[in-house]
Specification:
36% of the residues lie in helices and 18% in strands. By secondary structure, the chain is of the alpha+beta class. It has a domain of 176 residues: B-lactam Antibiotic, Isopenicillin N Synthase, Chain (Jelly Rolls, Sandwich), CATH 2.60.120.330. Keywords: Dioxygenase, Membrane, Oxidoreductase, Signal-anchor, Transmembrane, Transmembrane helix.
Length: 369
């Protein structure tokens, strides 16, 4: 079937788009309504367009050329922009691969890393980073951070043994070993709603243990007894690409958390596995600016977390929040038949660290700075 124009002739259809008096005009609505969608009509339309282009003056052509140049420049500019922290999984994976990720685990190559190295010049380095941040942005809201860096040595040396962060102490934060679920309610509820998703991806990963002692991507940690394995998605503020590819839904979930620490060396997200008979030695975390969240995936009996001398038990599908700058330990004294204790661990901001402070701390403690 061919549609035929009811009112116009071929001469009508060839009416020029640009008249001698106005150079460039638009086609009338009536002309469009009466268009014949035949092959002849298509040919006539192309011929009309070519003729209209020829009739247009130099000013119109220059305007079109400028718009085309601006469009090309815009595409180039957008293409060169760096992706945001959780913009896409692949973008972060490529970034992390270029920053020293090997065998599914991030290795620190910098002798100046504040997370891993203790030295006399640490306070000067932190103060220099703070000054650089303030010059770029503002000193507004930096009072506690400035106070903390200025007197860091005194804070760390005079802290009671129950709470002694190894790297950085931010003063005037509320101090308690455990936090209520309401401290970061949105993120806690989001993690708990996705309990089955995280559990399924862990179970797929854990099947590899039947084939070898330590599958790729897993890290074995030092313990007085037993075995403690971790599978990092984010380690010290950096994505671990191969691991994220194997847990894509869990990794995407991190991007939906409002308070996840993902841009500085104090931020981690991993699956933590304790085999029966394992005891983790007592230790302190690096800072009090975060709270550590454990989502129970598998929680056999006789497993406990002890923070600041206070014991707590995990529960499957439930989050447990604590301040790991307190002296803490964990153990699994269950039978081998009960299997491992498994939690999904993610570091969240302490609820009393303000937004301006979070931005500054991300800058000061950026990975590799």
């Amino acid at each position: 079937m061919v549609w035929v124009s009811l009112r116009t002739t071929r001469t009508d259809r060839r009416a020029p788009l640009c008249t001698p008096t106005t150079h460039c005009t638009t086609m009338s609505l009536e002309w469009l309504m009466d268009w014949s969608w035949s092959l002849d009509g298509l040919r006539d339309f192309i011929a009309t367009g070519i003729q209209s282009f020829r009739d247009c003056d130099a000013t119109a052509l220059a305007a079109v050329a400028c718009l085309l140049v601006l469009f090309v420049w815009y595409c180039y500019h957008v293409g060169r922009e760096q992706p945001r922290t959780y913009a896409t999984v692949n973008a972060l994976m490529q970034s992390a691969e270029a920053n020293g990720v090997q065998n599914g685990y991030v290795y620190c190559h910098s002798p100046e890393c504040v997370r891993c190295t203790h030295h006399d010049g640490l306070n000067q380095k932190l103060y220099h980073n703070l000054q650089e941040y303030a010059k770029r942005y503002s000193w507004s809201g930096m009072g506690r951070i400035h106070k903390g860096i200025r007197e860091q040595g005194r804070y760390l040396n005079s802290r009671p043994s129950i709470q002694k962060p190894e790297v950085f102490f931010l003063p005037d934060l509320p101090t308690m070993p455990y936090f209520s679920r309401d401290a970061q309610k949105h993120d806690v509820e989001l993690l708990e709603r996705n309990f089955q998703t995280i559990l399924c991806e862990f179970e797929t990963l854990y099947k590899a243990f039947s084939n070898c002692s330590l599958p790729q991507g897993w890290k074995m940690n030092s313990t007085p007894s037993g075995e403690w394995f971790t599978f990092y998605l984010v380690n010290q503020g950096m994505c671990v690409p191969r691991n994220c590819r194997r847990c894509p839904r869990t990794y995407r979930l991190l991007g939906s958390l409002r308070t996840c620490i993902g841009n500085n060396v104090f931020g981690n997200a991993c699956i933590s596995v304790l085999s029966p008979g394992t005891v983790i030695a007592e230790h302190y975390g690096p800072t009090n600016i975060r709270i550590r969240c454990h989502l129970g995936l598998k929680t056999p009996s006789n497993c406990e977390l002890v923070v600041g001398g206070e014991p707590q038990c995990w529960a499957e599908g439930r989050c447990l929040l604590f301040d790991d700058s307190f002296l803490h330990t964990a153990f699994h004294e269950g039978s081998p038949e009960e299997g491992p204790r498994v939690v999904f661990m993610v570091d969240l901001w302490h609820p009393n660290v303000a937004a301006a402070e979070r931005q500054a701390l991300d800058f000061i403690f950026a990975p590799g700075r």
